Amino acid sequence: MNAALVTTTRLFLKRAWAGALLAVSVLVLCPLMYRLVFPEPGRMFAQEDLFGVNIMYLILSSILFLAVGYNAIQGTHKICMGLPVRSTPIATWMMLATVSLVVVLQLVTNGAYRLLFFDAHWLSEYWPLLGPLLFMVTVILVSHAIYWGLYAVSLTRIVCWTCLVIGMCWWFVARYYPEGFQARAISWKHVTLSEFLTLLVVSVGAWYFGTREFARVRAGLATHSPHWRRLQNWYESIVTGAATSGRSETLSVSTSLSRLHWRDGCQRTVLNCGMVAGVAVWVVNLITMTGFGSTLHQWADGFLVIVAVFGVLAAILSAFQIGESVCVPGRKEMKAFLATAPLSDREFSHTLFRNLVRSVVTIFLLTEAGLLMTIVTLLLVKGPALLDWNLVRVGGTLLIYGCIYLFAFWIIAANVISLFWTGSTRFIFGVIGSILAGFALIVGVGSYLSDAYSRQLVILTFSVFECFLLGVFLCVTLLIWGGTAFAYLVAFQKRLIRGSTVVAALILWVTGVAIYFGVIESPILNQHHYEQFFFQLLLVALCTLSLTPIATVPLALRWNRHR
Questions:
Q1: Does this model's pTM top 0.85?
Q2: Which residue of 192, 317, 462, 472 sits 20 to 30 Å from the alpha carbon of 81, by its own alpha carbon?
Q3: Is residue 416 predicted with pLDDT exceeding 90?
Q4: Other beta carbons within 10 Å of 47
């Protein structure tokens, strides 16, 4: 028994270390990079700002660490099914392994925050750790129980699980409003005995239910209810397109391939990721609304932050799934119906690119639907009190930010999909590893130079750190511009895109740069604002990534198709 669990633990850690390193690096390096680019005296954030930062950290870290644990468990639970061990120890081991992993990652990340950003009074004043960590442990145990319960779903269980999740979220938010939701929110600094016992009872109940459901799944006794099976069949007919009209029609090869690829690799991801992100935005906005303030403008600012967070997560997760959809499991080769399609590489890439655009835009609109539902809910609850000119102004602001978010959503999702559509595991991990290594190198060298060489040089009137920062901005800008130009050149030479496409992209890029520097923000070229000018160039380069997939997607698909 011990040898089997030790071997399984090694496999669990082998699957978890890469994701754990990525999650911790994102949570630590991003704020550290922010501090390097925008240096401020004293702490990184003011005391009054740290409450919101802590809430945002809890949301992001919970999602990232739970995703890491889920990915690690996915590769080991099938092996655990065949171990010559009773079901209760196996289920308990999987729960404890996930809990231990998340707790260690939380402690490591919080320790790094203490060393890099906070003072000695961080735990007692503005960054509580014990209460959120205990709640996270309870969430993991409940997640395991629900996961194994999903093998035998019924409408009654769905209602009970929904009420449980909503109740846990409400209970957690209530810890920050000890004097009621109308009072000011404060940090959850102390865990009372009643709070500890509540979490303990829920955790023990989740452990018992999870071990029992795992035993039923392992014995092959878990089955869905008849009502749920009928509902599932109806949903599958919508996802796969079987519910559409059976009328026969003659379709071209590209149209047939487009529909087949959409049903095989896009439609399910679009519906699942889009609806989950939209519902999450709606629920989180309503739960945290009182913490944003009491006016419509304050609510809108908080809503925009929530939409941005879940938008980025939806873009990354959906890009991973759509990116994996063109290959067989393990990325050994492209799926046969795609690789053998009787289309040229240009027509083939154009067909799949249309599905990419359709998927990204649909997921974004479903995510924004959560914000729209939030506004509708506020109008229903508050009534005529919100019907004034402030609503019009806030609506205009939300529309402007919606366009900006769509632009950023496309940049993230389209470029990640183009990377995964290469189908080469070495290339994918090489690019991700190079980005993380370069990011870590910049942060490490920048931190050292900002502390050791912060004084200005006599000749250049810049400090060594400022010169390094300007060099980094310039190098990243040239790298993005050069890479994009090279991708367009290679794609044109291989006849994957037309010359008119290259010219149209160039005109669009020049027009965008002219509008940015001529209308939105004029360039500043004096010696005291070189850092701001180079940052503007970097921002323009990042916006250039919106045009990069037009060339990289055909190249990636051609490479994957003929490798």
A1: no
A2: 317
A3: yes
A4: 9
